[in-house]
Amino acid sequence: MRRTKHYRLAAAVLLAAAMSLTACSAGSSGGSEAKSAGKTSLTVALTGPPTNLDFTRTAGAAIPQALMSNVYEGLVKIDQDGRIQPSLAESWTLSDDRKTYTFKLHPGVTFSNGEAFTADDVKFSLERVKTGWVSSLKTKMDVVDSIDVLSDSEVEVKLSRPSNAWLFDMGTPVGAMFDPSGVQDLANKPVGTGPFTVESWKPGEAIAMTARDKYWGQAPKVKTLTLRYFADATATTNALRSGDVDVVYNMQAPELLPTFESDKSFQILDGTSNGKVELTMNNKVAPFNDVRVRRAVMYAIDRKAVLDTAWSGHGTLVGAPVPPTDPYYEDLNGVYPHDPGKAKALLKEAGAENLKITFTVPTRPYATAVSQIVVSELADVGIDATIETAEFPAVWLDKVFTKHDYQMSVILAVESRDLLTAFNNPNYYIGYDNSKIKDLAQTADAADEAGYVEGMKKVVRTITDDAAVDVLFLFPNLIVAKADVTGLPKNSVTEALDLTAAGWK
Amino acid sequence: MVVRLAVNVVRFIVTFFVATVAVFALMRAIPGDPAQISLGVNASPELLAQTRREFGTDRPLIAQYFDWVSGLPQGHFGVSFVTRRDISDMIADRVQVSLILVILSMIVALLIAVPFGTLAAVRHRRTSGILISGISQLGVAIPGFLAGIMLVVVFAVGLGWLPANGWTPPGQDFGDFASRIVLPVVALASVQGAILTRYVRSAVLEVMSEDYLRTARAKGLGKLEALVRHGLRNASIPVLTVTSIQLAALIIGAVVVERVFVIPGLGSMLLDAVGNRDMLSVQSVVMVLVAITLIINLIVDTLYTVLDPRIRKQA
Amino acid sequence: MSEPTAAESVPQFSLPGLEPGPEPAAVVARRGRRKVSATLIVGAAVVVLVVLAALVSFFWTPYDPVKAFPVDRLQGSSAAHLMGTDRYGRDVFSGILYGARITLMVGLISVGIALVIGTPLGILAGMRGGFTEEATMRGADILLAFPALLVAIMFGAVFGASTTTAMVAIGIGSIPGFARVARSGTLQVMSTEYVLAARASSQNSFRIARRHVLPNIAGMVVVQCSVTFALAVLAEAALSFLGLGTPPPVPSWGRMLQESQQFLGTFPMLAVWPGAAIAVAVLGFNLLGDGLRDKFDPKLNGER
């Protein structure tokens, strides 16, 4: 009896010991890297981790945010003001019919696996968009007719019709250059021509990158770069204060800024982004199939108050779904001033007094903040909006985006130059009737630069006049960083977070 | 004894497989198409169909279920179609983090609860006893995440004594590990300690009223001495029970503290996987939790027989 | 020898409900008799306060708790706003009053679910034994592996986050506690002489359950209700923190606390009010539970 008891005790103790032993080899979140590595490393805090590292097969802005510019590069890149600049292509020419681009490639470029970057890789990468990509982005390459390798350093791309948008897209993820022998495990091991390579990736926690020895361009300022992912904004600023991270990028809680504003050891960058916070109305179903009701909503909402209350005044009022970094931007804030009286009159005219609507709100901080103030303002003009939360992305995508089963929603649309994707397609979830803009848009894309800008401005004015969507404000690109960090990209023009120039004073 | 163990093992297996069916069924009821989430906006129907085929979510449910279950006994959970990583590896990482956090917290909680609970019982009519009871009542009443946030605000952001969040494996840099685990452990252990203090107190009070203890005291032993020599083993049984239940509940329950302190534990993995509709990962994490809970039950059940001779005789 | 020899028919290791055991009779008895317990009074008073706040909110709150007044946002306490205003300019005091309603509802429904499902199962297991007992207790074991938080995460995904989802999840998570309390109580009652007599005279089980078991375990079950209520309030707060609780704009204490997190550095009082409300309510229900336990436990005479 005694003996068996001791055995059992021993077994229990052993088990407990085994548990704690296995526990000792646990995984890391890279928490300590920032402190030990000194000034040749930079740690950036982000929210919203990528689910894997392959943006050719997985949607979402998180993967290109981390990898474009840092690991992958395109023939061209988009600068901080939204202009197209040379990158892997030194220069290019456009034929007179505006349909053939000839790119001259930069010499001496290699991929991180050692392979040389040549015209064949351009052909491979662009063709792979059509054949290998599993992403809705691939439609951006539909306009490409053929790709011809002229020499190792020259490549010719023929388009089926002139397109102003295409060259811009070549600076976004869809234009990223891949090596044929480096695409086996993109989800875990990206291979690109950029200045950094991915050293390690822990899903949901961190991506660690190191600078390459043989980078063709300007070497990055730091040797190691760590992107750490946090569940909420408070955790990011806490980590900044206690020195675990050096930069908080695209901060999601402007309420936290005041405590940093007065502190000399931190700097705040308040840049612009492509993100449009859109109050979307289903143009195809009652009551928003009536343009008067949509206009009433535009007059009912005090966008300045929404911005001040929901986002502490950080952001830009634009009045249309176009950020100032787009060439066809113009200030349309004056079209629908805050005028509850006019809103009520329009609702009366439309026979839509005492409206009851459902407001489907995705579970995101900006959406929660915006929705509460919007509901309150709608109530002032007699629209009773009931909030229904939709888990983002899963439920929102399913219900609102795919099934169009909603009346009103609010969403941060982050894709760059997505105006035509959203409004030149009646089957899009917004359901805007594109008959008035269809021809305008096509003429604009095929025209020369000036014609493009003029044509697109007309498109934007038409959409605004039809009150297709209420753009509440342009999302700010808020960055809080230690005071001696330099070279941070203030504006977010494409999805990429370009940290190649970031370093220390 | 052997019979009892065998019965328990059979119970374990049956319970486990009943749980697989429940979890699988529940997961299929979740709205949201993994393929759609993976492709995001503007995906064409062809792309969606292709992705569903790749993920295997277009196959009959029965086939999906058996594919998954047949891998479980070997601990093979498959490759997540969201992260494209081996789920077993990811869970192995996360489970270690969770176990370190939870076990350390429970140890600290017991270190608080056993002496203070005993003291509160022995001195239950004196100021010190009442004070301990009062503090433990308060400790139980404060939401865990609030305790965590306050700790961060005071000790990390305010005083700057400790890092605000993050995790370093003990094997990599023990000093850093230790400095980072202090606050989360304090946050968890203060609440759990308060709960356990109340149990220890009532268990000790119960034991103190037993005849054998009164006999021992009549023989001239002091209150505390009698208790330590004769009573604690009996008082330990209900405390052990509660500790085991709390331990199992805390592996997921710690998710709140994981969020506050940015700790990559199993609870966070579960939340993320649910958000991404990473069905395979969710199912696998839940089954690991079920297994851990059942194993804890099994161990505790065995410990009972060690602690309580009456149970041993029964078996 | 020192080891206890009393061999009872009820194994001592049967898991209790998730609450500390009663104050043993002998301990209590020594303290003197028939004094109304202070714990009970304080607990009951706090609970009454919460109920009152909830009731009042049906008829009157100083302001509409969901109406935003952007101009008045983030004010401190004043005559106009007793507890100040939040980031949307909503009156915090109105939110606290209204939140009491949500808190009570969450507590009542989740306790109700656990009570209605868990108690009969526990009694059944205790009376029948054999396969019924085995199946019920194994079921409870499985449920133990699904704590309220896990159920809520999964239900939140299936049905969307809402107060209802949270209540049901907390309710389901609390079933094992009730089942265990009812079972262990039933086992004790079943071994008493009068039940043995009743069984010998072949009364049917339902009658025994109603006449003998139920009245005798009622006290323990009431205590379990009170303790579970307190746990439910905490669970709702935790779920709200994770975004799985009551959705906006309805003010629940948990969500008010969660929303105030970002203002801890600048407007800490925003967190203090809902935090204090939760702590006080939980304390109240726990104290009530302790007080009731002393009163109801069959071994006791109800004093402290």
Helices and strands in order:
The complex is a heterotrimer of chains A (505), B (315) and C (304).
Chain A: H1 2-23, H2 33-36, E1 41-47, H3 62-67, E2 76-78, E3 84-86, E4 89-94, E5 100-105, H4 119-131, E6 144-151, E7 154-159, H5 164-169, E8 196-202, E9 206-211, E10 224-230, H6 233-241, E11 247-248, H7 258-261, E12 266-281, H8 291-300, H9 303-310, H10 340-349, E13 355-362, H11 365-380, E14 383-390, H12 394-402, E15 408-413, H13 419-423, H14 438-446, H15 449-465, E16 469-482, E17 485-486, E18 503-504
Parallel strand pairs in A: 1-10, 1-11, 13-14, 13-15
Antiparallel strand pairs in A: 2-3, 4-5, 5-7, 6-7, 8-9, 9-10, 11-16, 12-15, 12-16, 17-18
Helix pairs in contact in A: 8-10, 9-11, 14-15
Chain B: H1 2-28, H2 34-39, H3 45-55, H4 61-71, H5 87-122, H6 127-141, H7 144-158, H8 174-208, H9 211-218, H10 223-253, H11 255-261, H12 266-275, H13 279-307, H14 309-314
Helix pairs in contact in B: 1-13, 5-6, 5-8, 5-10, 6-8, 7-8, 7-11, 8-10, 9-10, 10-13, 11-12, 12-13
Chain C: H1 25-29, H2 38-59, H3 92-128, H4 130-144, H5 148-159, H6 163-190, H7 193-200, H8 205-241, H9 253-260, H10 269-296
Helix pairs in contact in C: 2-3, 2-10, 3-4, 3-6, 3-8, 3-10, 4-6, 5-6, 6-8, 8-9, 8-10, 9-10
Give a verbal description of the structure.
The complex is a heterotrimer of chains A (505), B (315) and C (304). Chain A has 505 residues and is an alpha+beta fold. Chain A has 15 helices and 18 strands. A ten-stranded mixed beta sheet of chain A has the order 8-9-10-1-11-16-12-15-13-14. By secondary structure, chain B is an all-alpha fold. Chain B has two domains: 32-71, no CATH class; 94-275, MetI-like (MetI-like fold, Orthogonal Bundle). The termini of chain B are close together. Chain C is mainly alpha-helical and 304 residues long. Chain C is 66% helix and 0% strand. In chain C, helix 3 (92-128) runs parallel beside helix 6 (163-190). The two termini of chain C are 33 Å apart. The chains are: A alpha+beta (505), B mainly alpha (315), C mainly alpha (304). Chains A and B meet through helix 1, helix 6 and helix 12 of A and helix 2, helix 3, helix 5, helix 7 and helix 12 of B.
